[in-house]
Structures are given as structure tokens and as C-alpha cells.
Amino acid sequence: MNTSALETDPRALRVWVEERMVFVELTDGRCLGFPATRFRLLAAASDEQLAQATLRLDGAALRWEEIDEDISVRGIVEGRFQLPLPPEKRAA
After folding, report:
1. What is the pTM of this model?
2. Among residues 38, 43, 47, 73, which one has the fewest Cβ atoms lying within 10 Å of its Cβ?
3. How many Cβ atoms are within 10 Å of 63's Cβ, its own excluded?
4. Separation between Cα atoms, residue 86 and residue 89, nearest integer Å
């Protein structure tokens, strides 16, 4: 039996922001979070703009309309970010 990529791609059920951390709850039950500073446009966004995160493409992408930013859920799960963690946030 063939399984399409769409069926195996990670999908989000919801997205929310707390204290400039973006969180996603995945359909497999995992919750992941990352600091907004990992993406240029998110880092520069106001708290109000950052809080306006929505899900798109049946949970395959996150969208911030006002700042015109889209981030794939697959990229988040795979740890693909634009910017590295600041030195004080890296594990010792």
C-alpha cells in the first residue's frame, strides 16, 4: 500500500504564542515550541503581530498575515530555522 507524502507530513492541530515562544500541537500528540528569534520576521514582529499566528494548508503551515510570514510545520519538526539560538540559550 502506498502512503502519500501528504498523509505522512507532520500536521498541526493548533498554534499559540506565549512570551515570544511559538508552540504547535501536532496531530500525533506532540507539542513543539521555538523562540520567535529563530526567524527574522518573527523576531522583528511586535507581540501583537506574533500572537496572530494561524494554521494554513490543513495544518501543514503556520501563517502570520500582517508580517507576511509562512513557516512549514515540517521545517519546525525537522529543526530547520533561519537563525541559530543565541549563545545564552544553547545547551552547555
Report:
1. 0.85
2. 47
3. 16
4. 5
